[in-house]
Each structure stands twice: as C-alpha cells, then as structure tokens.
Amino acid sequence: MGHTGSGKSSIINVLMHFYEFQSGRVLLDDVDIRNYSQEELRKNIGLVLQDPFLYHGTIKSNIAMYQDISEEQVQVAAAFVDADSFIQELPQGYDSPVSERGSSFSTGQRQLLAFARTVASQPKILILDEATANIDSETESLVQASLAKMRQGRTTIAIAHRLSTIQDANCIYVLDKGRIIESGTHEELLALGGTYHKMYSLQAGAMS
Question: Is this entry keyworded Transmembrane helix (predicted)?
Fold first, then answer.
C-alpha cells in the first residue's frame, strides 16, 4: 500500500512482465520471470483490476476469455465466485449479450464476472489491483466473500487503498517513491506508529 504514485502498480507491471527492467531479478518459484513465456506467466498469474475489462460478446465468452474450457467449467467458475445467481436470472443466462465494457451490469457484477474469468484459468498466484475500490454497496459483501474464497490456497498480492481490505495479510509493505519504507503485519505496523499507522488512523476517522 502507499499513496498515489508510490510505485504500487509499477511493481505489478514488472511482475507481470509488462515492463522490461534493467537491473535485479524477479523470481517465480526460484526462476527468473524472463525465462517464462508470456503465455506461461498469464496462465500462472491471475490479475484482477480495479476497472475490470469486459468485451462485446456473451457472458460465457467473457468468462472463458479465449481459453479452451467447457461450458460446465465456465459455470463452475461463476458459481464459485457467486456470480451464477445473477447470471441465471438473466433471460439468456450465460448466453446473455455483454456490451463493450459491460455497461449494462453494475460495478459489482462486472467485478464478479472478472473474478469468474480469473478462477476459470486456475492461477497459482492472484494479483488484486485495487479490486474492491469501486464496488457498489449492493454487491460489496458478495464481492468480499468471493475474494476470500479465491485467495484460499493461493499466493495473493493485493494493492489496496482501503486498508480495511488487507488487515489479514501475512505481510503488508508500505511504499513511498518506489521504495519499501515499512513492512509487517497490521498489528506490527500500527505499533510502529509510522506511515501505515497515520494512514489507517485517517481512514478509520473518516469512516467513524
């Protein structure tokens, strides 16, 4: 976590190998990510963005996203993240049309469809880039519950502005100008009384 411009998204871009880097290494299972093909990286790392990308097609094609998976696998993935209930209520179910960027769905519904797409690919690593920043109150509890299930048994890297969403993390890294300035659990960082403590207190005060 960190303020805007602290380098959070840049780290994700390097990890996904969207950017080349001149020095240092990024290791995945003790292997430099530059030794993986882009296809291997995309298969093993599931990326969920703040503004999920949906394209013109059907719900089924958006979840499958060019993967060679069956309709049953699509439905299993949707059910796992609790998207199946609202999909089944649509007149055409999984064959329902999706407009560009999914404008006919709520923010929470779009995020659930993005979750289903990620689960369908069965990644070993999950990256959440402000994945809950813009969700609507109607589906917030559903999205949070789905995220909890997705994280089970997976290494999860979460970029978060709302600190309440990362309190249970094994380790929280605080970034400033591209550098890690604090690290530890939620309790350890509060006890430290530094940047994290200040940001958490400000957010807690704003919500009270």
Answer: yes
